[in-house]
User: Fold this.
Amino acid sequence: MSPFKLIVLALLGAQTLVVGAEPSNPGETKAIANPSAPVAGGIPSETLTALELQGRQLYLEGKSSNGRPIVADREGGIKLRGQQAACVQCHLRSGLGGVEGNEAIPPISGRAIFGGGNPVIVEVDRLFNKSLSTPPKPYDDKSFRSAVRLGQHVSGRKLSALMPRYELTDEELRAVSAYLKTLSKTWSPGAAEKEIHLATVITPDVSPERRKVFVDTLNAILNQHNVNVATAGKHRITPIEKRLHSRRTWALDVWELNGPSSTWAEQLEKRQQEKPVFAVLSGLSESEWQPVQDFCEIQKVACWFPSVDLVPEEANKGKYSLYFSAGIQLEADVISKQLLSTSKKPGKIVQLIGESALAQKAASTVRRHLAKSGADIQDIVLNQSAADSTATLLKSLKPEDAVLLWLKDNELNNSLTGLAAPLSAVYVSSTLAGEKMPAWSVDWSKNAWLIQRSELPKMRSANLTRFNDWIRYRQLTLLDEKMQSEVYFAVNSFSWMLSSMLNNLHTDYLIERAEATLSMREAMQVQEEVQSMMMGGGGHGPQPVNNSSKSKPTAHKVDMDFLMKRTGTTAYPRISLGIGQRFASKGAYVRPLVSDMNIAESGAKWIVP
Assistant:
């Protein structure tokens, strides 16, 4: 099912929502053009007038120019103040509205309510077109005052009970009106009439082998998208799709960073100035990502689900970057919660730390969480000179103690092989060590636990069935299932979101659509895949898979029961977003580190810190 129909049926009850401007000729099928030329970087605050800045503060913060919280009344005697009353709470940063419960919140951008240019169309049912409905006449200053203060629609009817009645002065009303006229006024940089310009970022620490597989996977999906767009004219498409010209090809630049991370910001800014992009699609790093996120936040460019394990500090507070999870820090959060969840005070906690930035970050995160617990925390940076003292320390541990191994697989094998297992619990990072039971852990398995952000193996195989079919069909090398499936999801979910945005190519709106509909998109995708499999199709066309494919076989035979039970299409469990959320998967499993997967999965515990 297409995003056009899905959004309507799920959110708007098969209505067409069109607001603002004069109605177009019902018989027209020409594409609706960009309302005006895009402005690089959107509309930064330094370009707003004093009146618009005052309106911005009212809209986003619910404060007047003197810092006084604004006041509003909602039906039922509910009094709202300050941030609670801010317009952004319902109409969002883009001004293009959203959904509150079962009710659609209409757009209030300047073009939507005051007219001028083409109508603002945010939701449409492809089965109901006609003239795209007849938009209401535009508001003027008088009718706008009545709407804000009295809750009266321009037509004279009452506005929704969700719409508060505001106690604003004439000056404050003028300020809000001025700011609304700046919202979603122009397309974001990188969006053009027939093409969306994108970039992906690769940091210099990525190995040549992983870089090649990443780029090959990304290009294969991108090329498939462009072929689908090019051949769309051969199939029946609705007048609304023709008119909105919502099917665009993509042009992707690979931005390969070089040198120290202190120079990355300058490199990224230069690339953006030379050829602006609408979004950073996926991305790959084995070290830090902070400069890339900073670039996206400053330039108001969407950073769309990169493959990174070292997620920037305070990424959850950003506005334009979305991640699969909080990375290695999430594993540290989960271990910390596990250690603090017992009624007893934690005993001695020993962290054996490898040389990688990931290991260092995880260990510091645990120390920060446990600082107030009174636990005795001992950090050991593992190297050859520390081998003897480490063995002695492990022998001294008691059952109430814990060992946290922030070590890669090779570091574990080199350092711990032959050492007797401690009496304490042992926690291993799957991000660093992998998921397979290593040789050193055979004698440790009685009390060893793996911290795993990805889905458990059997369900993960079910989730990634279509991805693995696609890899084989495209004859791509499967080097890293987790990373390559992340790329696959990033591109497909981005394509879906763009389609649901219709002609509203604004970065804020893209993020808002993801917050509102990502989990719904996953549910619909699962349903579509299951139906396709039950009908005997994989969705890849009749061409057989070449036996010379370099793809590795999937690790587990897919069980039909798991195919029917699954709720997602990624390597992660429970993918979803909400307003202001930046991590799609919010927990991790703590499972026994044993070779028998039945025991491992039955003993797994899902923890959200």
